[in-house]
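Structure record:
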Amino acid sequence: MPPLYTIQAFVLGQIENNTYLLSDSKTKHAIVIDPAFGIETVIQAMRKQDLQLCAIWITHAHFDHIAGVRQLLQDFGQKIPVFLHKDDLALWEAGGGAPDFGFNFDPKARPTDFLEHGQQLRFGDQAIEVRHTPGHTPGHVIFYWAEQQSVFCGDLIFYHGVGRTDLAYSDAQALIQSIHENVFPLPEETKLLSGHGRPTTVREEKDQNPFL
């Protein structure tokens, strides 16, 4: 019998973003996390699987993690909720930080719901916990899905790496604290599904991450 819930990862765009598609085979409901440039690939997969988008969750407001929001809303409905932490709203409204990299970007969409630390998001009969993890950006969050032993951790932590903290709104000390308080206490076999690069685990990063 196939699993009721699945996580599909798509590597999209020139910066090779990981966009995640969560699906429920019983209801055909889906959630997209961090829709990047090239979101058409995910949309095609959703059409093929006959999935209905019910929410968009954003770990942080950098342009490469929100570039696909507009297209998802155009294809699946303008009333689909877009979730973001309020501390990243200013970054979203400033073009997702694109001017820091020498170009302009207009998301042409807005978040509709604001995430809070400790909030429990529902997906089918599952609960997925929001954890506020500032450092890379002020409003960065991660999504901990205990039932699937998985964390969608955006640009907080990577395989043997951590998120950038050399931007004006970044905070290196806060990022390290966020990892130690919100990632490392999790069970060591928990999978870390980052915004870029290969998956890793809590155990691997505790033992081998040179930045920590």
